[in-house]
Amino acid sequence: MKRLALVPVISAAMVAIMGTAAYASQYVAYEGPGFTGRSVVIDRCGPSNIPFHGSYKWYGDGQSGRMYNQRDTQGVMHFELPSDRNAEQRTPVGWQSIFIVC
User: Fold this and answer.
1) pLDDT tens digits for the chain (102 residues)?
2) Which residues lie closer than 8 Å to 102 by C-beta, 6 or more apart?
3) Signal sequence: where (predicted)?
4) CA–CA distance, 72 with 2 (Å, rounded to integer)
5) What is the pTM of this model?
6) Strand ranges (DSSP E) for the chain?
7) CA separation (Å) from 38 to 2, 15, 75?
8) What phi and psi, each to the nearest 5 degrees, are found at residue 78?
9) Residue 74, Cβ neighbours under 10 Å: how many?
């Protein structure tokens, strides 16, 4: 009887531990140059439009980011941010959208 009670507890603990271990790459877009003003974090898989273009920080943590000069990831990919390295730019950028590859 006690053995059966432990199985759900162990399963729940493993799900909790595995859930906290998952990381995703993040693109942080800033309104102003030098990482100033309002900011937004984009970390969901797939396409996202970028609302701010003053500067950015990229935290590569497993997924790459394909950058587009048009909204809705239209046109040709302009640049790819790496899945395993961080990047940043303190000056304005022209990218209008990102596709995070998951």
Assistant:
1) 444 444 444 444 433 333 444 568 999 999 999 999 999 999 999 999 999 999 999 999 999 999 999 999 999 999 999 999 999 999 999 999 999 999
2) 24, 45, 46, 63
3) 1-24
4) 55
5) 0.77
6) 26-32, 36-42, 46-49, 55-59, 64-68, 77-81, 87-89, 97-101
7) 54, 35, 28
8) -90, -35
9) 11
